[in-house]
Amino acid sequence: MKVVTLGELMMRLTPPNYSRLVQATEFQAVFGGGEANVAASLALFGHKVQFVTKLPENELGTCAIRHLEQQGVQTEFIARGGERIGLYFLEQGISVRPSQVIYDRKHSSFAKACQGDFDWEEIFVGADLFHTSGITLGISDKAREIALTAIKEAKERGITTSFDINYRSKLWGLEEARPAIKSILPYVDICFGGYLDAVKILEINSPVSGKDKAGLYQDLFQQLCATYGVRKVICTFRETLSVTRHSLTGYLYSRGESILATESQTFDILDRVGGGDAFAAGFLHAHLSGWGDEDGLNFALGASVLKHTISGDANLATEKEIQAFVADEGVGGIVR
Amino acid sequence: MKVVTLGELMMRLTPPNYSRLVQATEFQAVFGGGEANVAASLALFGHKVQFVTKLPENELGTCAIRHLEQQGVQTEFIARGGERIGLYFLEQGISVRPSQVIYDRKHSSFAKACQGDFDWEEIFVGADLFHTSGITLGISDKAREIALTAIKEAKERGITTSFDINYRSKLWGLEEARPAIKSILPYVDICFGGYLDAVKILEINSPVSGKDKAGLYQDLFQQLCATYGVRKVICTFRETLSVTRHSLTGYLYSRGESILATESQTFDILDRVGGGDAFAAGFLHAHLSGWGDEDGLNFALGASVLKHTISGDANLATEKEIQAFVADEGVGGIVR
Amino acid sequence: MKVVTLGELMMRLTPPNYSRLVQATEFQAVFGGGEANVAASLALFGHKVQFVTKLPENELGTCAIRHLEQQGVQTEFIARGGERIGLYFLEQGISVRPSQVIYDRKHSSFAKACQGDFDWEEIFVGADLFHTSGITLGISDKAREIALTAIKEAKERGITTSFDINYRSKLWGLEEARPAIKSILPYVDICFGGYLDAVKILEINSPVSGKDKAGLYQDLFQQLCATYGVRKVICTFRETLSVTRHSLTGYLYSRGESILATESQTFDILDRVGGGDAFAAGFLHAHLSGWGDEDGLNFALGASVLKHTISGDANLATEKEIQAFVADEGVGGIVR
Amino acid sequence: MKVVTLGELMMRLTPPNYSRLVQATEFQAVFGGGEANVAASLALFGHKVQFVTKLPENELGTCAIRHLEQQGVQTEFIARGGERIGLYFLEQGISVRPSQVIYDRKHSSFAKACQGDFDWEEIFVGADLFHTSGITLGISDKAREIALTAIKEAKERGITTSFDINYRSKLWGLEEARPAIKSILPYVDICFGGYLDAVKILEINSPVSGKDKAGLYQDLFQQLCATYGVRKVICTFRETLSVTRHSLTGYLYSRGESILATESQTFDILDRVGGGDAFAAGFLHAHLSGWGDEDGLNFALGASVLKHTISGDANLATEKEIQAFVADEGVGGIVR
Amino acid sequence: MKVVTLGELMMRLTPPNYSRLVQATEFQAVFGGGEANVAASLALFGHKVQFVTKLPENELGTCAIRHLEQQGVQTEFIARGGERIGLYFLEQGISVRPSQVIYDRKHSSFAKACQGDFDWEEIFVGADLFHTSGITLGISDKAREIALTAIKEAKERGITTSFDINYRSKLWGLEEARPAIKSILPYVDICFGGYLDAVKILEINSPVSGKDKAGLYQDLFQQLCATYGVRKVICTFRETLSVTRHSLTGYLYSRGESILATESQTFDILDRVGGGDAFAAGFLHAHLSGWGDEDGLNFALGASVLKHTISGDANLATEKEIQAFVADEGVGGIVR
Amino acid sequence: MKVVTLGELMMRLTPPNYSRLVQATEFQAVFGGGEANVAASLALFGHKVQFVTKLPENELGTCAIRHLEQQGVQTEFIARGGERIGLYFLEQGISVRPSQVIYDRKHSSFAKACQGDFDWEEIFVGADLFHTSGITLGISDKAREIALTAIKEAKERGITTSFDINYRSKLWGLEEARPAIKSILPYVDICFGGYLDAVKILEINSPVSGKDKAGLYQDLFQQLCATYGVRKVICTFRETLSVTRHSLTGYLYSRGESILATESQTFDILDRVGGGDAFAAGFLHAHLSGWGDEDGLNFALGASVLKHTISGDANLATEKEIQAFVADEGVGGIVR
């Protein structure tokens, strides 16, 4: 299937070995960003994926593109130009010490991109799925306009649209995020988002607390779907036992029904970034493959859990590996 | 005591920091192999150990020999020649992501060695113990013949013989392994092997399931010893809580009696490879030192557990450290 | 506030990636020492801190000073001269394998320093707090004399004095330590030390065992304070679940009252060294800031726990981070 | 323009920092091979390049493909299967110490590939240029047959054919190489090869020595072109001042005329491997771009010289950088 | 002596081992900037140096300050706030491959600093020398205004002023630079700048070409001093034999007299950045120490040459080392 | 042949990538020392070599021994005990920046060894050659006594004795060195030492300056041999073009005749340490192999030059490689 994702690709700079930023004398560089991570994962699952963004006309922009191509993502619709590539510095936490992110993404080529940089007519030829996220809406007014244009163009062409709310408080405030998110949801078919998104951003009234968790969610997401015409809402419940040990499960609402992932997972973490993107990509793969929602949810959860054990933003777990994990095969040993 | 072990020494190439193979831009190189690991451990325990193999006449062969000598293993009976050194690529798993091994050991110097490469008359002068494993039987027909010759020559000279079944499904199928393993067992005094080996390879009928674990094992290994004249069978029970957290205990059968290690151990893992070899070497050291079976089993278990916390194939835990661990002394603190 | 700490600064050489010393081909170098670690932590909390020691007139001495200055510690009273900088080699343990320390600090510039190297008149101008430890007493006769002189000079000037008993069995025996520790305590206001210090070094009779832990401690430390005129005794209770997973709580005795930290903490460890120094610095900061004992104890415990997740000897956790940890805010997530 | 190159892609393992192989504890891994290097260079120059080979169905094969895609090379005609990826170990020499190569490429997937693995009908659709080399002929009988088939198929379709003689004495002897090289030359339009190739492999009589170098070459290559119908022969003259300092110039023969590069270059070397491939790619780019032979030769020489300053097998110098170098612009400074 | 320097401090990110930017997977991070480099060098020579800039209120700003403090530079007048720290990416060239710089310094805290961030009254207390450069003028209008204010305030207080023209074409064009440079020169006592600066920026007529180099310079700089009231002009002549091998000499004009450095130097380069700053700092140190111009020029040249052999932006060569180099003592051997 | 060498083995700690000591955050660790380097080289040439020293009973001592064994050197006569292993810190110079050594070898196990640690009766069984150096004489009074005892014991047994004067000004002054060197020379057969040694230490009158270099040397060494009964004196002439580019030739005096190496060599340097030891080992190998003096001198020079291109203290160039270098074969290319 052909997929298009739109967003910013940043260079992530991480001091090695759980070093703090104030101690840093070297940084490991990878490239990532919510929608680029979804693109990489879907490309690995065998889809033809175009990642759309804007990158500067310098070696760092070229390096970013080489990185995408290494992951099998197609890059011909990436605009070049503008001032700089967005950066972020990640201090990896461990045990009880939280991770820290310093964004240095303002004034980036993508943040200052304009509508004319992207020819959706051409980009969407043959496309089956379009995916973007709330991060793109929060980057800049221009990025927000581009994302809205893109999702409308997709919708008009009958392309399935997917959107991950992904609210980032370091990017924008709730006041700014609310109208933007609300304005895009009417064009969204598949929405990734959680309890806090529904309550704080979409201002849906939280149901009475007498209900159990799944019940609460069903109420919330029923309203969400009813209000905006969204077809499916999918999210994870995450419990943080420590910075590097989490518990995760998955929940899906569709047409009045709630599904919980068959098993919740508790696991140690090598790299936390991209766990949500791997979840989204996992579900979208299942959807594109025509699997049922329950299988899709379990696959998405497995994809997300495995991502947490892989260094870098992108999920390098293959479909086969994820399915083996979901089926609980051979987890502990070395096959040799 | 003088020990001779026979097997293949491979170069192991591991991407650092839990990187996946598809991400690899560098590899850490160590040398290892089941019988070489046993040799290194016994040399560290103070025995005079000859490791017998064949390595190519190039710098990689020389590098492998330097590595053995660094570990105090004697190398004068290592034949040189042939095409290449065996390699394997190890992707180290973590948390819920399993480790992966890619063998690239076909056509190796040892796989294509011939009987004339080894003069057992000379090699076995003064030897007290000979050790090899099922890996050597599975490498090639030639390696199998050499191993059989060696164990027979050892047996004839009254040298204690030790054999670790170590079935590797990536090397050979059960159909091929069965007759080979069965043909060597009559020459074996001390056998390392587990439940699955007994049932699937030796085709011993599993006892009725009403019994407890130790009872099941006693039945199985009694038959094994009776059939092949083996004197002792020793194995571990391993429970994998995650890829990097295991639980381990030890079991020994000898002359109708079963012994369980005094305490089972649960521990985090730094490097899983060589855990079984450290166990075997631990027991063989106890045996060579004339310790009783129970002490030997506890020492073997301690050796194996500590090996899991040491990087590389070889166990670098000293006798003193293992004994302190078995006696549960000072585990948590830094002595300073 | 202005703080003066006195002690030895050593170069610490650690093989990376949990490598054993016998495997080492490279070492990571940091500088540390009990009182220098306290100095670094207090400087980070915003105090003006002078660290007093003696270092050789060579590039290694200069490198050590640059390291202190990088941490905001003031260095103008560091004497230069003597033979060498003290070193120690640290093998970092993991899981069930203990850490190892090899001290190579004999004959160091500080061990051979003399009274004339330090002009306390000048050093103590404007000082509010003086801190040293039992390590300094154990380094050499000369270091002991210097420490005694310093604490007496501090006391005479009405400067609050702080002392961490910090008994190191690799430095000196109990026989030697007892009179030295006993001779300094009469000049100490705030004492960091635990049960074993009180019983084994100070030879205070352990109270009858019918009491609970806090009761036992109250008895012991009441005697300690009564005998030596110490105002507060503070310590941690540490439980070692494995080499890299500990449980920690804090206890304080002052004027007949015992306080336990509000919550004990269980956590994984990145770097164990300096955990006690971070605890001391945390409490001293609270004291200098005029916080109450309970807040001080909780802050000290939080500082110590966070230090265990930071590489190197020095605690790089800021006051704000420690307070967020104590208040249990946002531990699990990435703020982004 | 569309280009197809055929050959083997190997994993190259190099100890860092000029370490010798016998000292190696880690290896840097890149992927390369004569024709793959030409492909990477031409892709960077903006051509659409298909690299054709066979790689195993494992993570190493996948890693190799990701590497090619990162370089913008297209990989859809790479067959998967067979036993292993070819490897070579490179010890980088320096000063007066020569570099060493240990090939471990026997039994590779490409060496054992068969005609059915490649559908030239499909591969050559729209192709303008086909390139392969003597290395491919030397790998195995099967590889030789595949290369011959490919070049004949190319020729039949009117595609320009390019061939680099690239004799490797560690792959095959002269006796074996002679008929193979001679059998392919009749299908070659552009031939990269030097004096020794002409004399030792093609057994062309060296002209009388009274002539100058260019004269000697003209005689030789005139015969070569006349005998085999080759249109152009291009080569470098290399003088080795030390292992890491060379002098290089370029020579071209075409239709009875000899051209020497405008300037010879003397330069320090960072990575020697791929210098010849960069030269070939440089010339082919000029040819595809319709530049004249002299400009092409100068560009090829510049490309080769710059490659020697870039780590890895592939030339990462852009057309713009090579042209600036040829025009001798701004070599010494930093533009900032 | 007390020195104040004003400018921007950037994080420099360099891929290791002469890797190209498009290959980069890790970066080495140091901090530097023209005036910060001068500050570091003068601090190492024993002066009390305040570096004045503005850095963001985040861990990267803190890391930058820690770095300055490690070099003994005083930081209490560094303003905190603004958006980001300036960055630059440095691709280190080698042999014939030039170095590349990608600036990412727009919108930095210093570029957007305002006059109110700096209290020159307080900063200049006791100062003997003020130094800034043309880079600061080129960063932004605000930075230019701050620099002008600062130099005027210095001048008013009778503080010696030093200015390095340091034209950077990637920062601003000649049109923009001309009036800015011309407006600051009337306040400058000591000016570092060369032939091109005088001709292209200051538009001084180049003297007739019949003269020798020193003669040409004397004419130029005489006009420069006459026009702007500058007391001394100092510059280097640099010849680039290759990217990593340069030849350097020094020239000084003062009161109608020209001095050439006693000896020109030819040398291999480890790190080119900061060579000019080391030169300036070397001369300023000589000036502050009351040495004569000739000794100062030779010391400056020696400082610059040694800097080229030291990794990072800052010159770590001590006065003693530079003097030994100037006196040509023991260059080749190891003292041991 | 069997060889015994006596001396100290130190851990050498070198910051990587030409970093200065004041910048160091990590160190590469190798083990070396003059006589250990000779031992390693001779072991690589195929001799059976015992290295005699004393090392502490800790992991660093064990690590040192493992290192020797890796090089094929035999270690059973190494005494264990004492306080510490000697260390030295090496700052590697480059271009015009000299290398720096900080010795930290006082109080080492070997410096405090006693006669009873070594049983020369047993050590010298079957020995053909004994080698030590002036470094050992300079380490301590005890080391000097041990060396004198050893050489006398060797001489008594008719073992050839070899001595490298190797004066180290950081170890001892000329006043102290003179009598020590003079007292050992009567027991020396083969002496490595140069012009300055003869003039400044042995106080031989320098011949009149009218003669050429070889003539001067012949006069000097004739006197040296006559005075002390030394059979051969061998030395290098070293010219330092830069810190990392030297020119080297060899000179030998024996029985009234002078020999100069056939060719002098000019070369770039990767690691300067051990160049003299490689020279000595090269000559001793030639001597033990019964080659003539001229061949021996050329081989020694080749060995030394190649050592300069190899990282670490020990020469890893094989006999075959050295002979190829001396015969000037294939220096520039890669054999592939």
UniProtKB/TrEMBL annotation, chains A, B, C, D, E, F:
Protein's UniProt keywords contain Kinase: yes
E.C. numbers: 2.7.1.45
Cleavable signal peptide: none
GO molecular function, one term: 2-dehydro-3-deoxygluconokinase activity
CDD domains with a match to the protein in the record: KdgK
Species of the source: Sutcliffiella tianshenii
Residue ranges of domain Carbohydrate kinase PfkB in the record: 2-314
InterPro entries noted in UniProt: Carb_kinase_PfkB-like (IPR052700), PfkB_dom (IPR011611), Ribokinase-like (IPR029056)
Keywords: Kinase, Transferase
Protein name: 2-dehydro-3-deoxygluconokinase
Main EC class the enzyme belongs to: transferase
Keyword Ligase: no
Top-rank taxon: Bacteria
Family under the similarity heading: Belongs to the carbohydrate kinase PfkB family.
